[in-house]
Hints:
By secondary structure, the chain is an all-alpha fold.
Amino acid sequence: LLRLSKYFNRLNSHKMALKFIQKAINLGTDYQDIFFEQADLLIKTGYPEETIFTLKNILKKDNQNSKAFDMMGTAMMSLGLFEEAIDRFCDAIYLKPETFGYYLNLGTALSAAGRFKDAKECLIKTTELSEGSSLAHCELGNAYNKSGNFRSALEQYTLSANLSRESIFPIIGKFSLSQYFPELKPEPLFKEICSHITEHNGTIELN
Length: 207
């Protein structure tokens, strides 16, 4: 059942995957991987409260599990609980301080909470740990953008775009800055965004 769930998950059929996971749990399957799979699918299918409940049960058995804290932070972000999410991402970093993805999530949460100075410091750390992550530079660009430092935002979006020609997020970032920089022509940027969405069947891919 877990293999079937992972199969449907890879096909982006998350609701079907979740059904197989829940069947496995109902049959008495009780090991950590299956509950992580359930939590992941609950987030993807729009059930953050249930995700948090599942992760709390994991942490009752293993309160040193950084992945559970990180996923809980992600679920709290989707509920708009930014300060609570920040605390959970900090818990994850405390347990595994060299995991760049945790810093990336923390920086995103800090930015969402309006704590732009802290967000920038955290995301700079992320770019140092990530060894060329396009998404890390893009999120740092977003933090600069939200705080009004548009030149630094443009620099980070450009770095992000150079690291991943497939990612649409730095292009969206540049488009948002086109009103401040004459060299950024909004029409070709908009066309590039539309082209990417069309190529990916109406979805935006994370890169």
